[in-house]
Amino acid sequence: MELREIFDLVPQAAEQLPRGAFLTAGGDVWNPMTIGWAQFGVIWGRPVVTVMVRKSRFTFSRMEQTDVFTVSVPRAKELAKELGFCGSRSGRDVDKERESGLTRSPARAGGADGVRECGAAFECRIVQKQMLDLDTLDPEARARYYGSNQALPNGDPHMIYVGEILAAYSL
Ligand SMILES: Cc1cc2nc3c(=O)[nH]c(=O)nc-3n(C[C@H](O)[C@H](O)[C@H](O)COP(=O)(O)O)c2cc1C
Q1: 22 Cα to the center of ligand 1, angstroms
Q2: N or C: which terminus of the chain has fewer CB atoms within 10 Å of its end residue's CB?
Q3: In terms of pLDDT, which residue wins out, 57 or 151?
Q4: Distance CA 86, CA 26 (A)
Q5: Atom in ligand 1 nearest the alpha carbon of residue 31
Q6: Atom 7, ligand 1: residue with shortest CA distance
């Protein structure tokens, strides 16, 4: 795909992200997780999306079993209830495919199945991942996001996944 075709979809995604988008990993279990943070850009000569998943998430275990993921972005201000559900309930406890009210949009380019009810999807292949090194993080951000109030005792740092964009399209 042309970079321009991909990046035409980014303003819409950037505007919606603070309200939430859905991350789905490849593999048999389809478990949309709400995300609020992502980066869109170019690294290693290819268009990428970077997402961050805490170790405590069920989605972390799914991301570790696959090399693809998809970020699905709702149309402006839509799917608030579903974002709330997928941002507070864990796939360890509920079957989100049955209970979230969301349905699969089959992958078109070898990524993971996305969310049909959304406005845009970014299918990705993981090209790099690394655990966030809290010792190199701004102390204010560390205290705010990785303090003792997190699900795991070490601050529950995020795994950072860089995904090459295989395809991006409107749904
Ligand atoms: C608006 C919003 C944004 C969120 N962003 C992230 C994120 O970027 N990374 C993350 O690990 N969790 C994030 N979360 C928390 C997860 O969505 C939440 O813990 C979810 O229940 C995990 O689901 P899972 O256990 O099925 O993976 C966010 C939650 C909300 C409501």
Answers
A1: 9
A2: N
A3: 57
A4: 17
A5: 26
A6: 35
Reported confidence tier of residue 153, pLDDT bands at 50, 70, 90: confident
Residue bearing tokens 């268009």:
47
Reading the block at residue 13, the tokens are 């995604």
Q: With contact defined as beta carbons under 8 Å apart, do 113 and 66 qualify?
A: no
Sorted by where each starts, the structural domains of the chain and their CATH numbers stand as 3-170 (2.30.110.10)
Quick one: pLDDT at residue 161?
98
Distance CA 70, CA 74 (A): 13
Q: Return the pLDDT at 91.
A: 98
Q: What percentage of the chain reaches a pLDDT higher than 90?
A: 93
In Å, how far from its chain's centre is CA 26? 12
Report d(CA 113, CA 105) in Å as an integer. Answer: 5
pLDDT tens per residue across span 54-76? 999 999 999 999 999 999 999 99
Distance CA 44, CA 171 (A): 28
